[in-house]
Specification:
Layout: H1 10-23, H2 26-38, H3 45-57, H4 61-73, H5 80-92, H6 96-108, H7 115-127, H8 131-143, H9 150-162, H10 166-175, H11 184-196, H12 200-212, H13 219-231, H14 235-247, H15 254-263, H16 270-282, H17 290-301, H18 308-316
Helix pairs in contact: 1-2, 1-3, 2-3, 3-4, 3-5, 4-5, 5-6, 5-7, 6-7, 7-8, 7-9, 9-10, 9-11, 11-12, 11-13, 13-14, 13-15, 14-16, 15-17, 17-18
């Protein structure tokens, strides 16, 4: 074009640069970019961002960071799109420290990330074992007027519970309860975490809130309560929950059968465990596979004569 007396403008160069990036020709894109600078033209923020995006699409975070550094050194500041492109690429590559650092820089520059991007940063931090840092990051983001949404809150509560930070998860849940719509996964995470801590009363309160919001408990919800009651030595309550679980059509796992058998190991619990077997057996084969029956048969064979009345039930079903 220059040979024809036509000098391309920045928009034209940006369009060609974008085409190079779309084809994955980063060498061509970089050469064009360098030629533009050598010709005395000054790339704008959009052109820098297009080149950075090309490197990010190619999973080349190192060169993307290099171009971003060159951009700032030239006096050109990244905009919201620039930050978002690099942060998302860092999240995809599991680079939680870099994503967190860039998010702080982005907020410090006065830009607000969209909610899915903010959720990705918190999620990748938690996946990297940094749930507490993610929680503090969320607090800092809130101070920077990043409004909490369901995706961010559900993500954070799930990971806080998974990381054993149940108190923080419950606090967050209570703080945002009015405008927050928890997912079933969030309820399950919180109920499971509270049960692991032996806080069955609070787990029951969360359960009630879940039912009030018209969520149907699933197998994971029931199993969390069963395990919790067994853990604190309340097998009768565990069996009550188990009976409701089966009645509602939720299939227990082999793990939960083993939990029940282990918690009902004393002779005084024989009749209660017999009720578990009868409930499961009367519900059909959907609720008991071969491995689950093996758990019961081993229990029958290793206990006293009072279990003989249950052996025929196990063998005949």
């Amino acid at each position: 074009m220059p040979g024809w007396g036509i000098v391309p403008d920045i928009v034209t160069y940006t369009t060609v640069l974008s085409a190079y990036g779309a084809k994955g020709d980063l060498k061509g894109a970089q050469k064009l970019f360098d030629d533009i600078i050598a010709a005395g033209r000054r790339p704008d923020v959009t052109m820098y961002t297009v080149l950075i995006d090309g490197y990010c699409r190619a999973r080349n975070i190192q060169d993307a960071a290099r171009v971003m550094d060159e951009m700032e050194a030239s006096g050109m500041q990244p905009n919201e799109v620039t930050y978002s492109v690099v942060i998302e690429a860092c999240c995809k590559e599991g680079k939680s420290a870099e994503a967190c650092s860039l998010m702080r820089e982005m907020l410090g520059a006065g830009y607000t990330p969209d909610m899915p991007l903010a959720a990705k940063v918190l999620d990748v931090m938690c996946q990297d074992g940094k749930a507490e840092e993610a929680y503090q990051m969320w607090r800092w983001m809130a101070k920077k007027n990043v409004p909490p949404d369901n995706t961010i809150t559900n993500t954070l509560i799930y990971w806080l519970c998974k990381s054993g930070m149940v108190r923080e998860a419950r606090k967050l849940f209570d703080e945002l309860e009015k405008g927050f719509k928890p997912s079933l996964l969030t309820y399950n995470s919180l109920i499971s975490g509270l049960c692991e801590n032996g806080e069955l009363q609070e787990a029951g309160q969360v359960w009630d809130d879940m039912v009030e919001r018209r969520y149907e408990p699933n197998a994971l919800t029931y199993e969390a309560l069963i395990k919790g009651f067994c853990k604190i030595g309340k097998p009768n309550e565990a069996v009550t929950v188990f009976t409701e679980m089966v009645t509602k059509g939720c299939t227990p796992s082999k793990f939960i059968y083993q939990v029940l058998v282990d918690s009902l190991s004393e002779p005084i619990h024989d009749d209660i465990l017999g009720k578990v077997i009868e409930t499961a057996a009367s519900s059909g084969w959907n609720f008991l596979d071969g491995d689950s029956w093996e758990i019961f048969i081993r229990k029958v064979l290793n206990t006293n004569d009072t279990w003989n009345k249950h052996l025929s039930l196990v063998l005949d079903t």
